[in-house]
Specification:
The structure is a single chain. By secondary structure, the protein is of the alpha/beta class. The protein has one domain (11-240): Alpha-Beta Barrel (TIM Barrel), CATH 3.20.20. Helix content is 44%, strand content 16%. The protein is built from twelve helices and eight strands. It has helices spanning 18-32, 49-56, 82-87, 98-103, 108-120, 133-137, 141-152, 158-163, 182-200, 203-206, 220-224, 241-251, and strands at 7-11, 39-44, 61-65, 90-95, 124-129, 165-168, 208-212, 231-234. It has an eight-stranded parallel barrel, surrounded by five helices. The longest helix is centred in the C-terminal third of the chain and has 19 residues, at 182-200. The chain is globular and about 45 Å long. The two termini are 19 Å apart.
Length: 252
């Protein structure tokens, strides 16, 4: 059995000014200095990445972005390229979050291009997949998520697939306070791993799969006790230093 290193990734979404990010980073480092055994990541708005580079680059905390373009440069006003992220010490990038899919109309074709571009530029993509409530209630959740995985990761080699992180985020649980049960989350994460195994064999056992969707300090240990859940993509709970620190402690 492959020993996958757990990953706890905070997604600040559109929160925190530069000064707030600096203050958070300083206090967070004090709280996490002695933590070992898992990877810690903060995915912040683009405006906060320079200050996080200053504060965190030499620490155990990794820095990530919440989105990027699939081209390295060009006439794409308002976009950020993977080369720009690399200079800001970003080692991860969230791709295909449900909010990007819904509000900014990113489809599987665009998301697949972004995943490929991240890999080509040495950045680990965190691919987000997940169903809405109507699909869940209709019993179509697994088929839908399997389809997302197949389309978003199409054409990648087994070596590339082993480097990707997939985050299962049931849309109906994001920011709602509702959480999939640990059993439901495990069932879907196992389905994701099975889908990748059909695509690339044993590479699926190396891939880290996270759960996101109102994960917090009180439920993270139960979620991570499941065999196919390797960590969490944490929204609201990553905005508070004490809560995020407690969540990480409980995840250990």
């Amino acid at each position: 059995m492959v020993n996958r290193r757990p990953l706890i990734a905070g997604n600040w979404k559109m929160n925190k000014t530069i000064s707030e990010a600096r203050d958070f980073a300083a206090r967070f480092l004090e709280n996490t200095a002695d933590i070992t055994g898992l990877d810690i990541l903060i995915c912040a708005p683009f405006t906060n990445l320079p200050v996080l580079k200053e504060e965190l680059e030499e620490s155990i905390v990794h820095i990530g972005a919440q989105n990027m373009h699939y081209e390295t440069k060009g006439a794409y006003t308002g976009e950020i390229s993977p080369l720009m992220l690399k200079e800001l010490a970003c080692t991860y990038v969230i791709i295909g979050h449900s909010e990007r899919r819904e509000y900014f109309k990113e489809d599987d074709e665009i998301i697949a291009k972004k995943v490929k571009a991240a890999l080509e530029n040495g950045i680990t993509p965190i691919l987000c997949v997940g169903e809405n409530l109507s699909l869940r209630e209709a019993g179509k959740a697994q088929d839908f998520v399997r389809g997302q995985v197949e389309k978003d990761l199409a054409g990648l080699t087994a070596a590339e697939l082993s480097r990707i992180v997939v985050a299962y985020e049931p849309i109906w649980a994001i920011g709602t306070g509702k959480t999939a049960s640990a059993q439901d989350a495990q069932q879907m994460c196992a389905a994701i791993r099975s889908t990748v195994a059909d695509m690339a064999g044993s590479a699926a056992q190396e891939m880290r799969i996270l759960y996101g969707g109102s994960a917090k300090s009180g439920n993270i240990a139960e979620l991570m006790a499941q065999p196919d859940i390797d960590g969490g993509l944490i929204g609201g709970s990553s905005l508070d230093v004490q809560e995020f620190t407690q969540l990480i402690q409980n995840a250990r």
